[in-house]
Amino acid sequence: MIQEKLRAGLRVIFVGFNPSITSHERGLNYAGRNNRFYRILYESGLTARLYTPEESPHLLEDYGYGFTNLVARPTKRADELTAEEYREGARILREKLKQYRPRVACYVGKGVYERYSARRKVQWGFQAEPVLEGVMDFVGPSSSGLVRMTLAEQVSIYAELTKFMQYLKEP
Questions:
Q1: Which residues form the Uracil-DNA glycosylase-like domain (predicted)?
Q2: Is residue 24 domain-resident?
Q3: What is the span of the domain harbouring residue 98?
Q4: Which of 32, 13, 132, 126 is nearest to 70 (CA)?
């Protein structure tokens, strides 16, 4: 079972739809063989080196990056989740965001953000109106190998988050 990586004062919390079967079985975030998550983090500059799923707990200590999902139940595909699971997941996620108050909530996929926020036609990147005051919402593409975007396209979107994180470090 996947262990959430959460604590107060997170710089970024990465929010996925739900764990894949592989991630659930391995107890690791974004652990599918074709998942590009860690490559995207590295190539966009969000990490200084390429991490593996096994090293994901270090992202909490090294960068203040946490992990959670909209729905905890593992499935092969997100379309196997029910409307009730999404509603309950959105309620639980809102409580987690209130409790941990990350600087940025990064939704790994437009669908994740749409289900959480009940908004439609969202754009990539930072959203003008946060769902929860004080927590910036950033929408990035899903890192699933099933996504029809090139790695370069995915990286270019996440690079916007990198620029913001670098801006926060400057005096």
A1: 8-156
A2: yes
A3: 12-166
A4: 13
